[in-house]
UniProtKB/TrEMBL annotation:
The lineage of its organism: Bacteria, Bacillati, Actinomycetota, Actinomycetes, Streptosporangiales. This is Carbohydrate kinase PfkB domain-containing protein. Residues 53-208 form the Carbohydrate kinase PfkB domain. InterPro entries: PfkB_dom, Ribokinase-like.
Length: 290
């Protein structure tokens, strides 16, 4: 039985997660024409969807059927959107571990999809998790079966420090850590040396093969190149295929634990949310078999 089997019909919810990540106010739209082909101003009518999103909320929204308890640890602004954010977490059944910064507004983002690509525009002046926020959430992390975090926090100094502190804190309390190696253009933003501290603290790493290959910058084939990359050899969930979503290798130091299709079909399967649902299924599988 592979983790992908639980995408459509997950088992009874189990386990408690604490999720670190962004919380943003987002506007989404899907347009029929390729925006990369546009050479002049154009007005397009398309359905627009406002929602509370960000990496932490997106994952929690798609993981609720798998996990009995999910808490989001993060920082938001203090403005008219803040009550909406808190109400959204209540509606999702997610525990609110957010700190509202009275000196900042909430971060916003726009996601635009066309038939071939996604453009995500994120506001630069968004609240960032701090080490103090992490220390305030120590009890939640210690009581969790898993800490889930992602690589967007590596892109800014303060949130990077908070991420590494949270991962180290989790491990000190015996809470395993799952790390999503994003954004997918991470190799254009950071060298491998900037990512290794997080990989050293992760028990599970979820990554698309092109992202990981870009970071390694070496000709040695995956997954063998991963042996010895970190000191403790995490489980690597390597996503591959024409769109880096169709197939997964579950690999851990010289041992291919699983190889399975995800069921994703480009042009047929809705991509938005699929990766988070797949991750939820895979983490449930891993926790069940530890």
């Amino acid at each position: 039985m592979t983790p992908a089997r639980w995408l459509g019909s997950p088992p009874e919810p189990r386990f408690a997660l604490t999720v670190l990540g962004d919380v943003r106010v987002e506007l989404r739209a899907r347009i029929p024409a390729r925006f990369t082909d546009m050479e002049s101003d154009r007005l397009v009518y398309a359905p627009l969807r406002p929602l509370i999103a960000g990496t932490a909320v997106n994952f929690a929204r798609n993981a609720r059927e798998h996990f009995k308890h999910i808490g989001i640890l993060g920082r938001v602004g203090d403005d008219s959107f803040t009550p909406v954010i808190r109400a959204t977490l209540r509606d999702l059944g997610v525990t609110d571990l957010l700190y509202a910064d009275p000196e900042q507004e909430n971060g916003c983002a726009v996601m635009l999809r066309d038939p071939g690509a996604r453009l995500l525009v994120a506001g630069e002046r968004a609240p960032r998790l701090t080490p103090d926020d992490v220390r305030a959430g120590r009890a939640a992390i210690a009581a969790s079966d898993l800490l889930v975090a992602d690589g967007y926090a590596l892109l800014e100094e303060r949130s990077r420090a908070a991420l590494l502190e949270a991962m180290a804190l989790a491990r000190s309390h015996g809470t395993p850590v799952a790390f999503d190696l994003v954004p997918h253009d991470l190799p254009d933003r950071l060298p491998l040396a900037g990512v290794l501290p997080a990989l050293e603290l992760a028990d599970v790493v979820i990554t698309e093969v092109p992202t990981l290959a870009g970071l390694l910058e070496e000709g040695a084939p995956l997954p063998g190149r991963l042996d010895g990359l970190t000191g403790h050899d995490p489980l690597w969930l390597l996503r591959d295929g024409p769109t880096a979503m169709e197939h997964v290798l579950a690999y851990q130091r010289g041992r291919l634990r699983l190889s399975y299709p995800t069921g994703f079909r480009s042009g047929v399967t809705e991509r938005t949310g699929f990766g988070d649902r797949l991750t939820a299924s895979e983490l449930y599988w891993w926790l069940s078999h530890r």
